[in-house]
Amino acid sequence: MAQKLKHSTINKFCIGPIGFFLMMNFVGNYYNYFLTDILTISAATVGTILLVARIIDAIAVPVAGGIVEMAHQKWGKYSTWLWAAPPFTAFFIALMFTGPNLKPAALSFFLGSMYVLAHLTVNLAEASQYALIPVIAQTPEDRILLSSRRAQAMSAGQLIFGLVAPSLIVLLGGNNEGRGIFLTVLLFAILQMLGYWLVAQVAQPYDSGKATDAASGVSLKDMALQVVTNRPLFILIVAEILRWTANIVIGNFAVYYFKYVAQNQALIAVFFTCSSIATFLGSALGQLVTRKVSKKQSWYIGMSINFLALIPARIFARNTILFITFAAVAAVGHAIVMNLSAAFFADVAEYAQRKTKKDAKGVIMSLSSLPIKISVALSGAIAGYSLALIGYDPNIAATTRIIDGIISFSTLIPAFFALAAILAIKFYPLPDRIQDLSET
């Protein structure tokens, strides 16, 4: 009989990545702005830089999973990477927020390269932590709890980010906004390194450096076949891409909304704080919902709330208080679904092992971060190209067309993706409980 996890183990394992969530929230919400308004790179060029870099990043996700799965280090098959990768992540993330004196083409190449290198190391650490979830949590209850607590830690990271990031930029930068942005992201990058080291310490007792029987003899071809032929995995990834894009697009446009629509950049701290509180409450609500209904039904409930809140957000967008309120309600819906992500992927990983008798948890669990990567790429490209479409130029006063465009892009685009996420999960075929997977 599988032994239940101690709550202290679950809490430490999930609290550790808060620094990582702080860092990635900052990158997701400020990198577009840093490139367009601090380095004054054109919106179209920014869209191209981020699209290319993020496509490479997304392709590298299963590669990182394969590396993690096949390497067996004495410090632990998975936890070794939690010790080794985060320092490199901190270094390259910091370089992403610099502006060396280079010609435009060389600067674009430099920034894109730093983005790719930073996220390659991020992928190794993320793949390792996700792969540890089905290793550490052996019961359905523990997997749901681990997934929920991780989502709550992500929500806490968003909350802390909303509370401190804008103020830190001012405090550390003074009159130099670019310097404030650089020093803030550097601080968050150091915190992600320390946090992942805590996770590695907690995980090592459960993580053997030796290959398991199921994993022995697993080749790259075996791993690739599990990914390509696993229908539940494919459907889950598509649905996750859609729901993450619905969430990320709002954040990408938030800086522009408060600068040009609300004309009060200080209110962005209120927006991030309210969204973070809503996300935290939504993740707690998600735990209650999943006790009453299945994971798929919980998905329908969460994404329906998300979709329905974005429509009035568009209608009342010129009223900043109402916009923040409805955006927060949308965040509650998204958080209910975010609560389930790791549990969904853990089910798929076990399903694949039962069907093929091959253990590729490292690859499959690493793919849980792939939807976020693809969504970030889509959202960044959408933001860059959408702003270019309406003639956005940070050096020129915003016209009515630009303001209306920012309002529509920040609400209707995520609403479309939320609706698509509801439709996509209908095709997910696995039963709700892990022990029933063999019947599917």
Structural overview:
The protein is mainly alpha-helical. The chain has one domain: Up-down Bundle (Growth Hormone, Chain: A), CATH 1.20.1250. It is built from 16 helices and no strands. It has helices at residues 7-15, 18-38, 43-70, 79-96, 104-136, 140-173, 177-203, 220-229, 231-261, 267-292, 295-315, 320-338, 341-356, 361-366, 370-389, 400-425.
- Provide the CATH topology: Growth Hormone, Chain: A
Instruction: Please estimate the helix content.
Output: over 70%
If helices are DSSP runs of H or I spanning 4 or more residues, what is the number of helices? 16
Strand residues, percent: under 5%
The shape is globular
What are its keywords?
mainly alpha, 16 helices, Growth Hormone, Chain: A, 440 residues
List the helices and strands and how they pair.
Blueprint: H1 7-15, H2 18-38, H3 43-70, H4 79-96, H5 104-136, H6 140-173, H7 177-203, H8 220-229, H9 231-261, H10 267-292, H11 295-315, H12 320-338, H13 341-356, H14 361-366, H15 370-389, H16 400-425
Helix pairs in contact: 1-6, 1-7, 2-6, 2-7, 2-9, 3-5, 3-15, 4-5, 4-7, 5-7, 6-7, 6-10, 6-13, 9-12, 9-13, 9-15, 9-16, 10-12, 11-12, 11-16
